[in-house]
Specification:
Helix content: 55-70%
Structural class: alpha+beta
Largest sheet: 4 strands, antiparallel
Radius of gyration: 32 Å
Strand order of the largest sheet: 7-8-6-9
Distance between the termini: 67 Å
Number of strands: 9
Oligomer: single chain
């Protein structure tokens, strides 16, 4: 927590009084490791100097401080002698830091630390002191970031109600039947409840990633439920009893629906192969939800509709809308002509050009974060504004990259190991994006010089082992994090200006080259720890998994299409629009400045798995009609009239289920909302426009054995 004086510097009695109160409140908060709290007011922050008589030192805050000008001047001298400008005190001397280390559990209760409650307590401290005037407060750190994310999850939960309301409005606008609308939405909500309950039974927790899964499950459920409802509406309108209509619809659409849901599940399940736990949990949660949909929307919904039926007025309206002689909109008239050779050639050519342009643009896609600050939150968030302030005014940022030097027991005190660690620190310092480095070698060198009257000639790593041992012992009293208890592991810390992908790539490259050249039997240089090190490792896993994941997704979807259509040509017609959408989605990511990372990696897999639903419903009808002897043009027009509107409705419903994420305070959720909305809508366009155009060149002629009626063909 950084306390700033907006109207002066830290050498102000009123400011120092506020800083003291803030320090005391933070010191007494539950879960604080009080022994290591550091501020200008804690006695552990000390100054030291070397004189002719030996060492002199004391706490930075004078014992006799009384707010007078004389005591403030003493404080000013102590700050300079302590060398804490840039770390505990800002470089411009207008703010100072209260460093508050936390325990993982509250000692009073033994329970895990509640980051949400902690974040709220910090906000109360901020608002109270800022309202009194005289100071501004900036707060950063993992605990605060976690609290912000948990608050964001609660806001996202409210968007679920908005998504449900949008879905109800779209469905009712299409059917004008409250009975069937609420049944579709109700069955989808049952699947969501089952998914949440089963995931809880499996021991998973709700996190900022998996909280989005209920949205997807609900949207997929509504889309499949709409297909069932539409089939029953049409059969009832033709005079079929509601029980028989439910049976017909179940028989007609169960296999395509099951195949589509299995494709969705495959799109999710492939993500389990990525060695990142949150993605694996998201994949399992989503697969469980899709499994629940097989029961609720493919089985339960037709059963319920067989009891309740649909409104007579809605059924009659559906029949009128499907009548062959009913005038249709210009859009559907144009869609009915896309299989004509001239239109088909134009559409395929334009799609190929778009795919080529998208591919060239997508080559600029980067792995990792592309903006400074916490990527989980928007750049305009209070946390990222605070982070920018601290990075600009202090010498050390929150982005820490740590290389671990592993040796034998007591090996970190060996002079050769200290020299190698020092060389690594020097190599990292020369890397653009590294603000400073720190290791045991730095502390030993400074303490050694201090032990010899501050002589700069002793600012070195002495050959005498006793001198090194003494310096290390002194260093650990002030900085116990410099090595572990048996002195077999010590970190070399690099403080980075940001954690952008390019910055991490440069630092990792330097560290890996050094580790390759300098690791031996006595010591190993291991990458990497620290939050920036974890980001770098995550980026590497994401980069390795991204293309492999896409190949698995498309291979699985292609296999399911082959099983369903039993035609490689139909499989190509289905896959090509999905592939073009994937390429365009990557190009969109480049345009919007979104990198491939944990949050966005699953998006394309989800988009492909769910996008194939359109093709399975639309192309299955078209192929059945063609095999019944219809021409491609007639089969396309009838399938468009029979399922085309529903495909458009499904696309709108799916997009409505995720577009509300765009307003999330959590940035990666907003990014996922934009990308999934794009993929759902563009896959819908591909199914309605590009897929029939491709059919002109690949599916114009099919063998035609025989059902005698349209009803039999569709069955």
């Amino acid at each position: 927590m950084v306390v700033e004086n907006p109207s002066g510097d830290i050498y102000d009695a009123r400011y120092l009084e506020s800083l003291q109160k803030v320090s005391e409140e933070l010191f007494l908060m539950p879960g604080v490791d009080r022994a290591w709290v550091r501020s200008l007011w804690t006695p552990g922050v000390r100054w030291n100097e070397v004189t002719e008589e030996g060492f002199r030192g004391g706490p930075v805050m004078p014992d006799t401080y009384d707010g007078s000008q004389a005591s403030i001047e003493t404080l000013r001298r102590n700050v300079q002698r302590a060398g804490i400008v840039g770390t505990l005190v800002a470089r411009d001397l207008k703010s100072s830091d209260v460093f508050v280390p936390l325990l993982d559990r509250d000692p009073a209760t033994g329970k895990r630390l509640d980051y949400r409650a902690l974040s709220r307590s910090l906000e109360q401290i901020r608002s109270r002191f800022e309202s009194q005037g005289g100071v501004r407060i900036h707060i950063v750190g993992f605990a605060k970031l976690a609290g912000e994310l948990l608050e964001g999850i609660l806001k996202v939960a409210g968007y679920f109600a908005v998504a449900a309301a949008i879905a109800i409005a779209i469905l009712f606008g299409y059917t004008r039947c409250w009975r069937s609308t609420f049944l579709v939405v109700g069955c989808s909500l049952v699947a969501v409840l089952w998914q949440v309950g089963l995931v809880s039974v499996l021991g998973f927790e709700l996190d900022p990633y998996s909280v989005l899964v209920p949205f997807l499950v609900f949207a997929i459920g509504v889309s499949h439920g709409t297909q069932k409802m539409n089939g029953i509406l049409q059969d009832v309108a033709r005079g079929t009893h509601q029980l028989v209509a439910a049976r017909y619809t179940f028989r007609r659409l169960f296999l395509p629906g099951l195949t589509a849901l299995l494709a969705d599940a495959v799109g999710f399940a492939v993500l389990v192969a990525i060695d990142i736990r949150v993605i694996q949990q998201l994949a399992i949660s989503a697969s469980v939800g899709v499994g629940a949909l097989i029961v609720t929307n493919l089985v339960l919904l037709p059963v319920l509709l067989s009891y309740t039926g649909v409104g007579k007025a809605a059924a009659a309206r559906s029949l009128r809308n499907e009548a062959p002689d009913r005038p249709v909109s210009w859009a559907f008239r144009w869609l009915g002509r896309v299989t004509e050779p001239r239109y088909a050639a134009l559409i395929v050519g334009v799609s190929a050009a778009m795919a080529l342009c998208g591919w060239k643009m997508s080559r600029g896609l980067q792995v990792g974060d592309l903006e400074p600050g916490a990527p989980e939150l928007r750049s305009s968030s209070r946390y990222n504004r605070d982070n920018a302030f601290i990075t600009a005014h202090y010498g050390l940022s929150n982005d820490v990259f740590a290389v671990m030097v592993k040796t034998g027991k007591e090996g970190c005190l060996d002079r050769s190991t200290l020299i190698e660690a020092d060389r690594l620190g020097w190599a990292l310092q020369q890397t653009p994006g590294v603000q400073a480095t720190n290791s045991l070698s730095d502390a030993v060198r400074v303490i050694t010089a201090g032990s010899f009257e501050g002589n700069p000639k002793w600012l070195t790593l002495a050959r005498n082992q006793d001198i090194l041992n003494y310096a290390a012992q002194q260093a650990t009293t002030r900085n116990p994090e410099l090595f572990n208890t048996d002195c077999s592991v010590m970190p070399v810390l690099a403080f980075l200006s940001d954690h952008k992908a390019e910055t991490l790539d440069r630092v990792v490259r330097v560290a890996e080259e050094f580790a390759t050249l300098h690791s031996d039997d006595q010591r190993q240089f291991l990458l990497a720890a620290g939050n920036a090190g974890i980001d770098a490792a995550t980026n590497r896993v994401v980069h390795a998994a991204s293309r492999t994941m896409m190949l698995w997704v498309y291979a699985a979807v292609a296999a399911l299409c082959l099983i369903t259509f039993r035609s490689w040509r139909a499989t190509v017609v289905t896959i090509l629009p999905l592939a073009i959408t994937s390429v365009l989605c990557e190009a969109l990511m480049v345009m919007l400045g979104i990198g491939v990372k944990v949050a966005t990696l699953p998006v394309i897999a989800l988009g492909v798995g769910i996008g194939v639903d359109y093709a399975l419903y639309l192309l299955s009808v078209q192929l059945a009609l063609q095999r019944a002897g219809r021409s491609l043009e007639d089969a396309h027009r009838i399938s468009l009239r029979f399922t085309g509107k529903v495909v458009a409705l499904v696309g709108a419903t799916l997009a409505a289920g995720v577009v509300t994420w765009v307003f999330s305070p959590i940035k990666f959720q907003a990014d996922m909302g934009i990308l999934l909305t794009f993929m759902f809508l563009w896959n819908m366009v591909g199914a309605l426009v590009l897929m029939p155009a491709l059919s002109r060149f690949l599916l114009a002629k099919l063998p035609a054995p025989a059902p005698r009626t349209l009803a039999e063909a569709i069955e």
